[in-house]
Design goal:
By secondary structure, the protein is mainly α. The protein is built from eight helices and no strands.
Length: 165
């Protein structure tokens, strides 16, 4: 086999994997949307979508939706922390969705996870400002601690170059 055939085979395998990931994401997202609001299967679906880049826009929408199941929002925030979008526009949108969740007065657990998940998004000055303010002045000590964790994690990511754009 020459190098051209190897490249073509590798490209075909990558295209097949991308198609399969997109189909899996579509199937799981459809299942998620068909479930009742507080069904714990929603959290499980988010876990199954972990590391599926095709699902990132959906996960951003789940985090941003204050009416969504709280544990699904928590899991989505966690996935967005571990797998921040590479696309700059989606990354910006994800950071803003996490900020929106952080400002949601109705659910402290979601706020804690949102604060903890913002480290990869600190290239956005608004994220950095809100994190710093939250770390100093939020009335919930667990949210404050989560914001401090995120600030420390952002520094570590910057030092190692793992923080992305």
């Amino acid at each position: 086999m020459n190098d051209t055939n190897l490249t073509t085979t590798t490209e075909a395998a990558s295209a097949t994997e991308a198609t399969e990931a997109a189909e899996a994401a579509e199937r799981l997202i459809a299942e998620f949307r068909a479930l009742p609001p507080d069904n714990d299967r929603k959290r499980e679906i988010i876990t199954e979508l972990d590391a599926n880049a095709q699902a990132l826009p959906f996960l951003v929408s789940v985090v941003a939706d204050a009416g969504e199941y709280d544990l699904a929002r928590v899991e989505s925030a966690t996935v967005l922390r571990l797998w921040p979008p590479a696309d700059p526009a989606l990354r910006h949108e994800a950071g803003r969705a996490l900020l929106s969740a952080l400002r949601d007065p109705g659910d402290d657990l979601v706020r804690q996870y949102a604060a903890m998940s913002l480290a990869p998004y600190t290239a956005d000055p608004v994220v950095t400002t809100v994190l710093n303010t939250t770390a100093r002045a939020d009335e919930d000590p667990l949210v404050r601690d989560s914001a401090r964790f995120s600030i420390e994690e952002a520094h570590r990511l910057q030092e190692t170059g793992a923080g992305g754009p």
